[in-house]
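[INFO] parsing input record for Polyphosphate kinase 2, PPK2 family
[DEBUG] input buffer:
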Amino acid sequence: MPRLSDTLLDACLGDPCALATGDAERLCGLDHDGARAQLAALKPWLVEQQRLLWARRQESLLVWLQGPDCAGKDGAIRHVFGGLDPQGLTVHSFRQPNAAERGEGFLERYRRCLPAAGGIALFNRTPYEGVACDLFDGFIAAVDIPERLAQLAAFEDELAGRGIRLLKVYLQISRAEQKARLRKRLLDPRKHWKLCAADLDDHRQFDRQQAHWAGILAASHRAQAPWQLVPANHKWLRDLLVASLLAREFERLDQHWPSPPPPFGLDELEQA
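[DEBUG] output buffer:
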């Protein structure tokens, strides 16, 4: 199976406890053409594994994609998960909660989107927005963070108890790369819709916000629910790493086609 080996994959991933000092530019000895070819070779295997997951209807997969603006969450979803059967795949994009969502527990809107057995759910932005962005936007105070982190840990443990395998991915880009991607959006009229006034202010505060996220990742990186820190300055590397992480989750399931006894025989069918 053509995913990256565990040795190379782990070497490419950053330390979630050292986000602020990590290198979003690292290439890990890989190159564009080779990575694209390896991803193309891996995708049919991922499709087959998704079919097995759907046929078995035992476990499910939940992928959380987090990262600063322009980190490539949408792109990773398109390039890694494109081609999977939409029957067993749901994608949820979470923006700032509305007034009704503010009136309930911050995890409730995420609970409503959990995958059923056999399914894969992708969260574009994660419940950790309730620890980071809610603080930046003034909806919570710093004193509220430990309690929310405790609720998140309990939520992740609950997912495991329900047979939902969680993959937490943080896409890391540099401030210079974010600025370059914002510039491209400004220069391309087809991408103006992606911009909002807050993007400029967030970019100005990039270092401060990433320092805060570094603390969140360090506090919530647990053996039973680890963060995977993916260098994302290079989109082709980002895609291969995310696909390899997904493949590793499938491998751990050790899936086989279910073989229940047929409900009727060939003779009965021929006589029908």
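[INFO] The chain has twelve helices and five strands.
[INFO] shutting down worker
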